[in-house]
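Format notes (please read before filing issues)

Several people have asked whether sequences and structure tokens are stored in separate files. They are not. Every record keeps both together, in the order shown below: the sequence lines, then the token lines. Line labels are part of the format and must not be stripped during preprocessing.
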Amino acid sequence: MSLHSLLSLHSLPADELLRHVTDVSLAAVQLWRPLYAEGGTLFDFALEYLNPAGQRMLGLPARPGGTMLGRFPHAGPSGTFDFYRQVYESGEPGRLDLNYQADGLDDYYRLAATRCGPLLVVSFTDTSDYEPGAVEQALRESQARERLALADTLRQRRRLLSVFEQVPALVARVNGPDLVLELANAALREAFPGTPPLLGRTVAEALPELANSPLLAHLHSVFRTGVPYHGTALPTRTAAGARYFDVVCQPSHDADGLTAGVFVFAYDVTAQVEARRALQTLNESLEAQVLERTNAALANQATALAAAHRQVQEREAFYRIFEQSPALILLLREPGHRIEYHNPAFHHAFAGRELLGRSFSEALPELVQLGVGTRLTAAFTEGLPAVDAELSLPDLTDPAAPPRFYTFTYQAYREGDQIMGVTVFGTDVTEQVRARQEQAISQRQTATLAEELLLANQRLIRTNADLNAFTYTASHDLGAPLANLQGLFLALREELPPAVQREEAVAPLLRLMQGALDRFQRTLADLTDVIRDDAELQQPAETVDLAALLTDVQLDLQPLLAETQPALTLDVAGCPRLWFAPGHLRSICYNLLSNALKYRDPVRPLQVQLTCRCEATAVVLEVCDNGLGVSAEQQARLFGLFQRLHPQVPGSGVGLYSVKKVVDNAGGSIRVRSEVGEGTCFTIYLPRHMAEVPAVS
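Then the structure lines:
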């Protein structure tokens, strides 16, 4: 039977029953009316009614008036107001258990709330219905556990802060695209002491010294791309003047894997001792501040809990810095240099072997053999930093790989005034070392090649001198005997009667003798031309009008042009003037055009084209014809001295040899494209500046 039916059966008014129920209820009952701002936002509740149990618990009358946040300001921070608003706006009933220790109340409460029309109905109980001794005992035990947890957290934080503050490098964490400084260690504050406070400000605002430094651009790039940056000897201006830092910028990520900020490690390679002294001073100051904050936190439990929460967050932040760092980080604690912590990079470098809890000499014998153990002991006993540069270690992750090189830095860390252990930072410098080694090898190879080239040039110079001497001797020493032979032949013809010269047996012999003497004479003339060309290779360059020069060449070739009747095309508009020795340029054009005319194919009309154009890196002079053409085997001998590939055509085999020698001497090159029965193209490439005629001084 429903409540409504029961009321009807006994003729009981509902409001009278409700009044009696709320009066006898052991739980408090509240009626709240929502209050809205102008924009329709629910910002508070008005207390409309409080039953007798609620009056007793809260010490208020039945119609107390006022608002929730006005009477109970702690309802906001404790989450009570948000709970009421959520139940009212969603229309779904809800429950909440909380320990409320503010606004004159100090008890554990259980609340149940539901919306009823325009009102919010809340029922709650406190611990007054339970045995006070048991509740108080449970609360004291809870507070004791919280104090123990807080003390343990503070000890761990002090230890981590002590290590972090004594790191011999500049360490910071920036957040967001604006690069807001979230963490900055003592070394960073020492390097930039003129702009406190650093935290909570952008890098550009807190560290104006970096405004013109490339580091700022690298930080933005790492945040934007998620790609780490490694910089070596990065110049930076600090309060102490110009400094150089090895910098590592590593992106940090949030729970969703997105880039949330950038970790920055910068190692000062110019003043390690000064950095250590500043670090010690700042560390002592920080320890005093931490002790002061800790004592103040212990005086108030709520403040202590909040401080403990912040300290845990800082500890986790420092831990993430070490965990995500590409540098090798190792914390050793005395006695015996026992390994207390290593980051993943160090663990990976030593092939994942078990390191924690073991002594340094037992876990890392490779480093002990290199004398690292001795320097660790010195750093611990003397408190001075030390550096081992470019230590060679085998690649334990790949035994077949070549060794890797690391630079290790050792720094004692303190707790109070006592040295408790040593921090080891290792940087992989393998790429720098190998690059330097490869550069040294390359320099030695270059020096060897230069020496070999010098010897080859010297041999070539001697060979060319011998060839020139031989050619000169041959051309001059053979001149006199040839003249004697010609004189004897003329005397013979004058002595022989005309009738005898016309005899069938004598006339061919005379013609053969005359032809041999003529060929001998042309050969000596060609040798003389070669000697003259060699002597004239250093003719001075001047401005040459290419069109006018080709007109003179055509006059010299007029008999051959008249004989062959070619379709001759000359196109030099692309480079009308050249800076070249006029005689050499005329020799090039004359020899190429005369070859095109002489080596024509009688089965088709002759076509010859000469063009000149300017390209990006060269001046290109080209002569093409549709003549006889030469085979691939003949092309290999085309530019040799006295090479004649078509004996049926008159020639000496000197022209193309002279052309190539002139082109080579000018710093250019010549190429040939040819097919038998199709024709030939000679392409000459000269330096581009030869088309840029210099001004006359």
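For reference, the curators noted about this record: The longest strand covers residues 241-253. The mean pLDDT is 79.
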